[in-house]
Amino acid sequence: MAEWLTATRLVDLALLAVIAEAVVLLAWRGAAARRLLLTLAAGGCVLLAWRMALAGLAWPWVAAAMACALACHAADIGGRLPPRR
Question: Which domain holds residue 12?
Answer without folding.
Answer: 2-79
